[in-house]
Amino acid sequence: AQKITQTQPGMFVQEKEAVTLDCTYDTSDPSYGLFWYKQPSSGEMIFLIYQGSYDQQNATEGRYSLNFQKARKSANLVISASQLGDSAMYFCAMRLDFQKLVFGTGTRLLVSP
Amino acid sequence: NAGVTQTPKFRILKIGQSMTLQCTQDMNHNYMYWYRQDPGMGLKLIYYSVGAGITDKGEVPNGYNVSRSTTEDFPLRLELAAPSQTSVYFCASSREGGGETQYFGPGTRLLVL
To answer: What is the DSSP letter of B73?
Structure first.
């Protein structure tokens, strides 16, 4: 069964430091996509970054990068130079057929001054 | 473009009441989805649609119904509200294609008492 696992319920980082949020996935489908979303306290879902299973390079979007290790089935999100506004819930998700998404349980990130 | 809009933003229902959550997108996306998010959890797929007139069940469809008479609208119906349906409901839409993210609405917070 396709599944996403996020083992860190909460993470704490100081401003300007880098932080890695873990995500492992399970699928037998050779074609899949992995997403990270941010959910601030206001509740909306904000798309951050996408990695396709056939992409040769790790995805990057500004301060966000995705450390994709296919053999280990991991897709960790790295946030460089954390900012106070990065405090939020972060969800890893995997794309199934018809673009459906299966989500992990999330990691709450708290950035302190 | 408004993107994905949802109404209402918040609703309190009594056990056994019915209601329809509205979702509209103006991006001409064929794919639309309904998710629920329970407190402290990730999103779970309720129903999805790949085009007008075509709908299918997701992971947690019990207690819900959907219809898709137009490309733009994808309403979610709760027939006999139960406390277990207290949740935040997100509607999303997507284009077809591998790397396309889903665009989420702002969510509807539902409380069943």
So the answer is: B
